[in-house]
Structures are given as structure tokens and as C-alpha cells.
Design a protein that fits this description.
The chain is α+β, with helices and mostly antiparallel strands. It has 2 domains: 188 residues, OB fold (Dihydrolipoamide Acetyltransferase, E2P) (Beta Barrel); 78 residues, no CATH class. It has 8 helices and 11 strands.
Length: 267
């Protein structure tokens, strides 16, 4: 993942400098653990080749590639703003040790928790809430406060969402420029508290399209959908709101929805 200064993470690095940084970090911070742990030790050849190739991708080891399997197996996917960084509580440390995460990395002393404000929910969380992100800083990487990220978490540990080294969390701007959001729309769908999948937005003309509300408190100006599938999502929202009792009153002004069919999808 890219957790340094936005686009600078994608810049090529001088091979020699990258190699020196790799050796210093490996020997000074994690060498003893790498020798003891087969999983982490297996990353060494890949990291070395990455440095020698002249490209440095902080945290992700390579450019992340989200697909349906990764998204489906993730417990949370969301866009958010990084906030404060702090250490783990004793309860959080106990949960981490129970999951044996420290055996794969340099130890619980190198784990940090970051507060993240969710700006857009794709899966597993709610827009507007603040969540705790667990991350390993043994290699000196951090989430920059105030920066926007797409967080992809494969596991929830206690009250924290785990984002591993070489994971799929990424700088939000990079994700938008490299087709990641289109993959999310295809797999998860669009909308707020309920999601409309791509197949239910298929169209041949604007007459095939309408909009439905996807938020319990009507904090929503409508999400495009094929007219045939609209009833299904209205029913889904009714059932969702009845079970979750998530009702928010919003004062928003919505423009009149004008259906459009672009590239075979209602938009």
C-alpha cells in the first residue's frame, strides 16, 4: 500500500539507494524475526528483486491488484481520511497475540493503530464513522494524517481492521487513476447502505433507467438502476432499514434525476 506522500510513492527510486535501505531495515529491525519465521522469510527474494529493478512501492511490495476474490474475502472496504496514530491498548495487544500476528513481523511494539474517518463505504463499515486501522510500521511506513486512502482489510481483530504489509490498501488518488474504483463498482455495486450491482444497471437507452434511494434516512438523491430491477432494491432497502434501524434526517437539496444510459450502464 502507499502510505507515504501521495504520488511520490509511485516514483522510481535509485536501485542502489533502495538496496541500502532494504539491507538496513532488514538487519536492524526485522532480521531476527525473518530468520525465525518462514512466511516473512519468503518475502526476501521478492523485496530484493524489487529494489534491484529500480522501483520502490512502499508497503505494497508491488502495485495492488484488486479482484473479485480479494474483495469478497475482505471484511471491510472503504474510502477514508487518516487521523491520529497511537499505540495499542492491553486488550488490543492481547487480541493481536491471540491471532499470532506478531510471529509474522517484528513484534507488537511495531504495530500501531490509526484512526480513520470513513468518507465512503464500499463494504463492512458506515460512512461517517471512525474506525481503527491496525498496521505494522516495522519498515518505517505510516499513514499520513489528513491523506485519503482506499482501505482494504482482510481481517477484523477486536475493534481493529487489519491492513497487512504487502496488502491492497492504497492511496485514493492512485486508485481512482488506475481503474480500482471501476472494479469495486463491478463487484460490490454502487449506492450507500445497499449496493446496486452492475448487471442491474444494464441498459440500451435512457428509457431503461431510473433511480432508487439507497439510504434509510433519505440522505440520498438516488442511485441509477434499470427500471426492471428497481422494485427489488426498494424492497431490499425497506428490509435493511427495518432490521438495522439506521435512520438519519438530512437536509439536502437534490436535483431532478435525468436518466442516462452510457456505455451500456445506467448512470
Amino acid at each position: 500500500m502507499k502510505a507515504s506522500t501521495n504520488n511520490q510513492n509511485m516514483n522510481a527510486a535509485i536501485p542502489g539507494s533502495c538496496l541500502r535501505e532494504f539491507l538496513v531495515r532488514a538487519f536492524e529491525q526485522v532480521f531476527s524475526k525473518l530468520l525465525a519465521d518462514a512466511g516473512t522469510r519468503a518475502l526476501l527474494p521478492f523485496l530484493l528483486l524489487t529494489c534491484l529493478s529500480g522501483k520502490a512501492h512502499a508497503l505494497s511490495c508491488a502495485q495492488p491488484k484488486l479482484d473479485e476474490a480479494i474483495i469478497t474475502n475482505s471484511v471491510a472496504v472503504f474510502e477514508g481520511v487518516a487521523g491520529d496514530k497511537h499505540g495499542l491498548t492491553w486488550l488490543q495487544k492481547a487480541s493481536v497475540q491471540k491471532e499470532r500476528l506478531t510471529g509474522r513481523f517484528a513484534g507488537v511494539e511495531n504495530l500501531s493503530v490509526y484512526d480513520f474517518r470513513v468518507t465512503k463505504n464500499w463494504k463492512g463499515v458506515t460512512a461517517g464513522q471512525t474506525v481503527s486501522i491496525l498496521f505494522n510500521t516495522a519498515w518505517g511506513d505510516n499513514y499520513v494524517p489528513g491523506a485519503n486512502f482506499l482501505i482494504v482489510s482482510p481481517q477484523q481483530i477486536s475493534d481493529m481492521y487489519w491492513t497487512p504489509l504487502c496488502g491492497n490498501s492504497i492511496d485514493l488518488e492512485w486508485a481512482r487513476k488506475n481503474g480500482v474504483m471501476e472494479v469495486l463498482e463491478e463487484v460490490i455495486g454502487i449506492g450507500q447502505q445497499i449496493k446496486i450491482v452492475a448487471k442491474d444497471r444494464a441498459c440500451q437507452s435512457a428509457q431503461d433507467c431510473t433511480a432508487v434511494i439507497t439510504h434509510c434516512g433519505a440522505c440520498d438523491c438516488g442511485t441509477p438502476v434499470n427500471v426492471v430491477a428497481a422494485g427489488k432494491y426498494k424492497e431490499q432497502l425497506q428490509q435493511f432499514c427495518a432490521i438495522n434501524r439506521l435512520i438519519e434526517n438530512c437536509e439536502i437539496v437534490c436535483e431532478t434525476y435525468v436518466p442516462a444510459c452510457e456505455e451500456g450502464l445506467c448512470r
